[in-house]
Amino acid sequence: MVARHDLTTDPGLQAQLLQARRGTAFFARKLNELTDAQLDGDSLLPGWSRRHIAAHIGYNARAIARLIEWAATGIETPMYPSFAVRDEEIEFGATLSPIALRNLFDHSAVHLSVEWRDLPDDAWHHTVRTIQGRDVPASETVWMRSREVWVHAVDLDNGATFADIPAPVLERLLKDITGAWHTRGTDKGLKVRVTDSDLTFGDPDAAVVITGPLPAVVQWATGRGTHGVGADGTAGQVPAAPKWI
After folding, report:
1. Residue 78 has pLDDT above 60, yes or no
2. Buried-state track 57-95, b at ≥16 Cβ within 10 A, e below 16
3. Which domains does the chain have, with CATH numbers?
């Protein structure tokens, strides 16, 4: 009999799955609020329309589902053959009719959720590979998806803001971003301090200190604006955040 609930019994993973599914539902709500004509409008990402965002999220679910199939079967099924193929897929998806584009999102989201649901506990530890070439446990795919749906719901430019994203998601995202900066050495001379929590990242002796509430700081860190953040040591000018992806 097909499972009607997630096979994993790990409470932490169950909580992450819930957060990812809530993010998917939030993205769906913001997408469904748009008329078909509004899909042609610009997103918050330069060069991408709302159609591109919807296509990306749809194909991303399919790509992550391939990783879960890899974990379940042991047969290597990459997310994408290459970055070029991924980009071509998104460009094609952006040309779909509105109903086809919406169906792509709906069906791919359900497919991924079912793949997660039916993956047994032991398989969540199986190693898969991201498009960036990182070897990660299958459990990492839940965070990969959660990050995509929550942030790109904002990118639809339909009223969602970083303040709508749950604090645990924002905190983990900020840790990921600042960790990437540190790995690349691009955080030298830069510190980030979140004013509504005790989170601080970066160079302890930094000349430039970015401050603000968590949603505003994460918005800045993802390269999506400086509203709500301040900067010490820059004559009041908030510098652009280092690249993180």
Report:
1. yes
2. bbbbbbbbbbbbbbbbeeeeeebbeeeeebeebbeebbe
3. 11-160 (1.20.120.450), 167-232 (3.30.1050.20)
